[in-house]
Amino acid sequence: MTRCGTIVLAGRPNAGKSSLLNALVGEHLAIVSPKPQSTRLPVVGLLTRDDTQYIFTDSPGLLEPEYQLHVAMRAAALRAIDDAEVIAYLHPLAEHPAPALTQVAKLDRAPRAPIVTVYTKSDLAPSTNLYQPPQPPATSSVVVSAVTREGLDALLATLRPHLPEGPFHYDPEEMATQPTRFFAAEFIREAAFELLHEELPYSVAVEIDEFREAAEPLYIRAVVYVERASQKGIVIGDGGRTIKALGQAARVKIEALLDAHVFLELHVKVLPKWRRRDASLKRLGYAR
Ligand SMILES: Nc1nc2c(ncn2[C@@H]2O[C@H](COP(=O)(O)OP(=O)(O)OP(=O)(O)O)[C@@H](O)[C@H]2O)c(=O)[nH]1
Ligand SMILES: [Mg+2]
Questions:
Q1: What is the secondary structure of 36-65 as a DSSP string?
Q2: What mean pLDDT do residues 188-208 have?
Q3: pTM (2 d.p.)
Q4: Distance from Cα 13 to the centre of ligand 2, integer Å
Q5: Among 105, 127, 170, 218, which is most exposed with the fewest C-beta within 10 angstroms?
Q6: Residue of minimum CA distance from atom 25 in ligand 1
Q7: What are the start and end residues of each CATH 3.40.50.300 domain in the chain?
Q8: CA–CA dist 244, 239 (Å, integer)
Q9: Residues above pLDDT 90, as percent of the chain
Q10: 180-283: CATH architecture
Q11: Confidence of residue 131 (pLDDT cuts 50, 70, 90)
Q12: Mean pLDDT score, 145-158
């Protein structure tokens, strides 16, 4: 009998959720950044191994909301936690032990699904006896590194019994469920996290205006939104230098995922205070 089910990757910002999703799936699907709060929407990654189909959902970091976008991110993370058959609760090994998820997520009561505590970035943790395996009957925990791939097989083995018996939901060859244009917009945002500083990456949102994949190179036109006119100038840069570099970096990422040449055209526009406005968040796909 095959098994198939959803596993949410949850935890504080920067815990390594997106990196772990990518390592498990074997493809760069979810954007990663040393800057916290890079994930704004859940990203689904599929892994089918032997008789088991793992449906992983990378979720936004659990944070204390400061503005409307945060409220939407937290809501999306809590929905993903609610919907999952098992919760992989990520916490950096260097900051062992992990506080209770109920506390981190400020939940009124413990989540319905079982929790597997996943200690991340083991390659960064000092090798002194920091990690003491929990004594039963504590919840199960696994130590992983998305970089060295340590612990990934152990994690899969720990998750597997929590997944319901039943048929696969997706073709075993599939890795993603979201449309290509979603990933295109995300990779432009990832480039913004790499090339822009301080508050700017947080003020950037991306909307795909046109996506033509009938002929190669694929043609993608996107709008990079910022919140203020002064930010627009910085994102464009001297003689368009910054937006050009951003476009190049994003194009390479999109081409790697699609395995096709891409012509990417970016325009920078101002959408005033979009992070604080419900209508803008809805339009950008961040809020319901
Ligand atoms: N050395 C090392 N770095 C890691 C590992 N996993 C993640 N990182 C780094 O930690 C930072 C955060 O990783 P992300 O995967 O973006 O973390 P996240 O939990 O998705 O963060 P948010 O989406 O912002 O909540 C990045 O700089 C990653 O490269 C790991 O196993 N080893
Ligand atoms: Mg992330």
A1: S----S-EEEEEEETTEEEEEEE-PPP---
A2: 98
A3: 0.96
A4: 7
A5: 127
A6: 13
A7: 3-162
A8: 9
A9: 94
A10: 2-Layer Sandwich (3.30)
A11: low
A12: 98
